[in-house]
Design brief:
By secondary structure, this protein is α/β, with parallel strands linked by helices. It contains eight helices and nine strands. The strands form two sheets. Strands 5-6-7-3-8-9 form a six-stranded mixed beta sheet, with helices on both faces. Strands 2-1-4 form a three-stranded antiparallel beta sheet, covered by helices on one side. The radius of gyration is 18 Å and the shape is globular.
Length: about 260
């Protein structure tokens, strides 16, 4: 797992010159082969427009997480190019990755401390981020006192404190129970509507992808390629009852059928 310092400092060198004016992220003919010989990605081309929520689904091992690491500058492609139009990047991992000995407030402060922001600005940003995820009253608690969903909220607050233009989310709700997962999905929808960041969201859940995204990228089995892209033309803001709407279930069925064809 990369260090938090890497998340702040290694976005240098990602080429923004190749971006279309409306794009936040662009992958152009990207291939990735690891030193073990594993080919994770093969000639992947995809974009995320500014203010767009893009979900990435596909079989296990198809390179979904690799795409996020490339967008963050934590990996470099073997061939092709990755262009990102901002250095303001937040990364949410599959696990909250909190310091167990530190308070909620201190955990949420970590990235802005590493970014060397002035103390007053750090305090203001962290307070706003904790308020945004509903943890203002838990700032002095240790992670062991929190539920799984609350620990993931701390992870979200930590990234939000950076005020990112681009949010990278790698299956952040995969380990949560279903009720908590649905609650966190709605929390993320609200944050996205208010903050207006661009999101790249990796998930194994088709229903989650359709609920959250403006567009879903369907990856093939390893080596990962873009098998299809599906526009999710459902109105925002999105409410819990959307899960029962025919237009929603049709999109879930469409993407599920595409996935069956690539496995």
């Amino acid at each position: 797992m990369p260090s938090f310092a890497q998340l702040v400092d290694t976005v240098d060198g990602v080429d923004a010159r190749q971006l279309h004016r409306d794009d936040q992220v662009s992958f152009h003919e990207v291939s990735m082969t690891y030193s073990t010989g594993t080919i994770a990605l093969a000639s992947v081309s995809a974009t995320a427009r500014r203010g767009e929520f893009v979900a990435i689904v596909g079989p296990s091992g198809c390179g979904k997480s690799t795409l996020l690491r490339l967008a963050a500058g934590l990996e470099r492609p073997s061939s092709g190019s990755v262009a990102v139009a901002t250095r303001s990047v937040g990364f949410i991992f599959q696990e909250p990755t909190l310091m167990p000995w530190a308070s909620v407030r201190r955990n949420a402060s970590l990235l802005v401390e590493l970014a060397h922001l002035p103390a007053a600005e750090r305090r203001s940003r962290v307070a706003a981020a904790l308020d945004a995820v509903g943890l203002t009253d838990f700032g002095d608690q240790l992670p062991k006192a929190l539920s799984g969903g609350m620990r993931m909220r701390v992870s979200l607050a930590r990234a939000l404190a950076l005020e990112p233009e681009l949010m990278l989310l790698d299956e952040p709700f995969g380990a949560l129970d279903e009720l908590t997962r649905q609650e966190m999905q709605l929390q993320l929808l609200g944050l996205f509507d208010r903050a207006g960041f661009t999101a790249l969201f990796v998930t194994h859940s088709v229903s989650e992808a359709v609920l959250l995204a403006d567009r879903v990228i369907v990856m093939s089995a390893r080596p990962g390629r873009v098998a299809a892209e599906v526009e999710i033309d459902l109105p925002r803001p999105r409410e819990p009852r959307l899960r029962f709407a025919p237009a929603y279930t049709e999109k879930v069925a469409q993407i599920s059928e595409l996935l069956r064809g690539v496995e």
